[in-house]
Amino acid sequence: MYVIQWLRSLLFIAQMYLMMLVLALYYIPRTVLNKNYAFHAVHSYCCWVRWTASWMVGLKSEVRGEVPTDEVLIASKHQSFFDIIMIVSVVPRPKFIMKSILKYAPILGWFGLKIGCVPVERGKRGAAIKKMVADVKSGRALPGQLIIFPQGTRVTAGAYLPYKVGAAVLQKETGQSVVPTATNVGVFWPRHGIYRKPGVAILEFLPILRPEDVSDMDTALFTAHIEQTIETASNVLMEEAGYTVPI
């Protein structure tokens, strides 16, 4: 059974990247004329991946909670490429703080820049945050939902990595609300490798934190608060999926 599922996973991954190319060829000319087509492109691709995952490898996906549509910060747990897919499939105007090297990635990098993603060089996150805050305040930044991964990278299911202060700094400087977001996708779709496990991957938008809710929190306290909120909810979702969370 493992070999069959591995082969199904390989086929799924192959068609996933093939469809990325097909959609890119369709949407690039349109996006050159009107950048709003970039959002059509990323939404179409992410919905396609969710749909094909459901029947090709048995990995269904469910989004819980109220999907944010206003200009907010989404502070999300990040376990694999699939949590990005799930967020982008439902959020109307997503944009990310992404590793700078990704802007050179074929297709992904080009569309990422078109939807307003912010490339950040390793070791220069502070400077990037300052520029991003300035862009938001001046109106140069594209409106939408800014997704930030407070741990800074993908984290294997059950592993621990401290949260960084980026989300707290952005919230304080922009005055925007924050939507903590939990997931269990790493149980089914790992950081690396081909095998995709059948099941139900869940992404959950947790109750929104409005500026007045966190006005008395400093950066350290806010960071600790969202860490506890996101990690606790993610652990519950992983346990729901049958994963034993390390104590």
In brief, what are we looking at here?
The chain is α/β, with parallel strands linked by helices and 247 residues long. It has helices at residues 2-33, 37-56, 81-90, 108-114, 125-138, 166-174, 211-214, 219-240; strands at residues 59-64, 73-76, 94-99, 118-120, 145-148, 178-183, 199-205. A seven-stranded mixed beta sheet has the order 1-7-6-2-5-3-4, with helices on both faces.
Verbal overview:
It is a single chain. The model has no long low-confidence stretch (mean pLDDT 90). Strand 3, helix 4 and strand 4 (118-120) form a beta-alpha-beta unit. The chain has one domain (2-240): Glycerol-3-phosphate (1)-acyltransferase (3-Layer(aba) Sandwich). Helix 1 runs antiparallel to helix 2, helix 2 (37-56) packs across helix 3 (81-90) and helix 5 packs parallel to helix 6. The chain has helices spanning 2-33, 37-56, 81-90, 108-114, 125-138, 166-174, 211-214, 219-240; strands at residues 59-64, 73-76, 94-99, 118-120, 145-148, 178-183, 199-205. It is globular, with a radius of gyration of 18 Å. The protein has a 7-stranded mixed beta sheet, with helices on both faces. The chain has 8 helices and 7 strands, in the order ααββαβαβαβαββαα. The two termini are 31 Å apart. It is an alpha/beta fold and 247 residues long.
